[in-house]
Amino acid sequence: MVFNASLAEIAIPDIKAFRNVNVRPALSTATSAAPAPAAQTVAMRVQNLNAYYGKFEAIEGVTLDFFDRNITAIIGPSGCGKSTLLRCLNRLHEVIPGARVEGTVKLGNEDIYAPTMNPVLLRRRVGMIFQRPNPFPSMSIYDNVGAGLKLSGRIAKAKLDEIVEKSLRQAALWDEVKDKLKESGLSLSGGQQQRLCIARTIAVQPEVILMDEPASALDPVSTLKVEDLMRELKANYTMIIVTHNLQQAARISDRTAFMLGGEDRKGHLVEYAATSDMFTRPSDPRTEQYISGRFG
Amino acid sequence: MATSTIPPRAAYGQFTPQNMRRRQIVNLIMIGIVAFCALIIIIPLVHILGVCLAEGASSLNLNLFIKPPAPPGVAGGGIAPAIVGSIIMLAIASVLGIPTGVATGIYMAEYGTRSNRYASIVRFVADILLGVPSIVIGIFVWTLLVRPFGSFSALAGGFALGAMMIPTISRTTEEVVRLVPQTIREASLALGIPYWKTVWRIVIPAASSGIGTAIVLAFARVGGETAPLLFTTLGNNFLSFNILRPMDAVPLRLFNYAIGPYEEWHRIAWATAFVLVIAILLLTIAVRRIARGRFNDGV
Amino acid sequence: METLRVMRQWWHDRRRLGITATPSLPRPPMRMGLQADRRFRTLLGAFAGVIMLLIGAMVVLLVSDSLMAWRQFGIIPFITGTDWNPPFKIFGALPYIYGTVVTSVMALVIATPIGIGCAVFLTEFAPRWVRTPLSLTVEMLASVPSVVFGLWGIFYFAPWLRSGVESWLTHHLDWIPLFKGPAFGIGIFAAGCILSIMIVPYITAITREVMLKVPAAQREGMLALGATRWEVVRIVVIPFARSGIVGGAILALGRALGETMAVTMLIGNRGQIKSSLFAQGATMSSVLANEFTEATFQLYTSSLIAIGLLLLVVALIMNILGRWLVSFSARNEATGRA
Question: Under an 8 A CB cutoff, do B103 and C62 touch?
Fold first, then answer.
């Protein structure tokens, strides 16, 4: 199992649009009205997080709050630790041999790294979508969506049918697959597979959904579909998305966190603000430089 | 949980405490079971080694290696003819097995492309040869080399062992030659060196340690085989260097002593078994050490 | 053990050939007129052809030498004949086929779960410091010669079985014909058990290879849904590796079929068909080992060779089938299907 924070950086965002300081990326009106932080509840809180792979420290001293029902984007150049941070949020980081974490991460009021917190339970509440769609090949579409549900015990078939349909509808996939629920998940296109994975994740009703570059392996049309889906899901779920695509971050997120790796290659959080603020009036010069494309 | 602005999660998604407990228990039980499986596998090996040593220790002395077998019931015999015989037969096997195996491996690696039907067939047939039961190889060599000449011989035994060596050597050689970097071949060709010379003088030397590994591994495999020797070389109580006559071999002697009725024979059999197993184990470990360093042969 | 390694390499090779284009070695130069290059290639090809000669000669000789038996008895009657009676010149192979089948199936039934369990432990649960020594041990077990297993079997394993498992079974379960006593230690049961010890490393090695190829993303996907580690293995990994595991078992079966020495030393060598597992019996390879050098007339030899031919055919079928399944799994791994 090789972990790599900067897998397959396929599309370099077209940054010519940012060269001209006065031209700002168009912000979707639905997300630009980010309410003031004080009025929001905190879904997850990270405090002084360090993450290690053996001796190598991948991220250091990260502190930020993720707000409820917001889409928070984490951006930064490759290798800055974005994916590591994400994986620390649902304790997938520690699955890698030798990996460990220092600091606090709280889901609501509970410390997720407390000895009493069972990672199995945590991962139910904090779901994850991966960069490459990973439907389970030995299962049909129906079984894929129900895969997580079956873990929580026996479910009546009628109820399972209902939940599967509901999840697929929420994932905007129902109409496309309703006639072929018994077919293998691999018979779908890349974008459909990713939406299938999203349906699978929301079928278990997590509180937070983490997304690790969910659209980077998809074609532009599927990407837009996934982004639309994310906007709809915002009503019910908190989403934290890692992306290397600045326009994507600008399009869909309410808040953005910018991370950067220092000379010692440890990732730090440089700036964290409402998206509209970050893209128009970044407070840190490094943010400004990254957004306008001077590096990364 | 966060404050009340979030509507409660749907019940069906969450894990009840009973569910969690049950699944944790199942998880632990299964881990226990598979760990137990691993243990079950270790125990026979450890036991066999230990028993060989314990039983054979009394006979593990110089006599074992330099003396010929004693008359039944008399102590102090050894397996010297068997050791000599094994060495001779392995040498004969090498004459057949090493050139054929290495050449086949090189051919597969250098010329074995998809479009080469011959190479695909050879590869398929080599894999088949690997799957032929060793006793059937013994029968085959009997019809080929024993019956026509009317006599069991070390030659036949060596031939059988050699036939068994071929597929293992060729497979490993092929792997190893394929691993030689492209750039070396290209550099040589770019210098105007003909292709055959490139392979012969540059690629093969580069792969030589790997090929050596292949050969040693083949010895380790074949050195302990008894079945192909049963009706090719038959065995011999006396030291002989005549390859056209029956000759003894270590596994054969082990077999005959093990099923024989004399205590003394059994003791010698244990000592022989110990020596045989240790020899093979050491060869295998040594080779893996070298191979891992070179080819990162993942464990 | 070497076979283990070669099987593994074969697997790697299949996988590579299955998914990539041919390895991009430079083609022999276009100026094929170059004599030396052609001669070299032909020379190597000739050596490679030796293998084909060997197999061809093997098939031809075995078939032709067994023809006498086939003609004398007919193919089906020979295979189904239960009477193996050299003095009366009657030869029927069924007792030995029975012995082979029963011991091999028994070995497979015992070894497969244990081998898969050990492989699961190795890939999924074992701490890092355990992995190397454990897999080394498994490979060493595979490199122990068959005669040594036989020796150990005669003096330790079989007596242990007799006083332990066999006595328990004959006392408590002897209403089942399979377990009817008396149990002497030596017999089909002991042969099957020792055979299972001998094939377990192969199952473990191949299963492990196949499981390692399951992509991390699949495992993480299941973990992210809130599964325990065992659930990840049960729901995702094993189904994904299904065909490879079955292929590995079939390959191990092929090996079990041909195993001679340890089985000969533990099975009692009486060509009979009895319903009890504790009866003595014989396998195709054991009767060959025992009687070949004592075959005094041609029909006898020919019948034995006929048995050898049967053994060859069955072992090869298993071998080819198993390899096909494992490469099928390799192709699946490449495309992400299962």
Answer: no
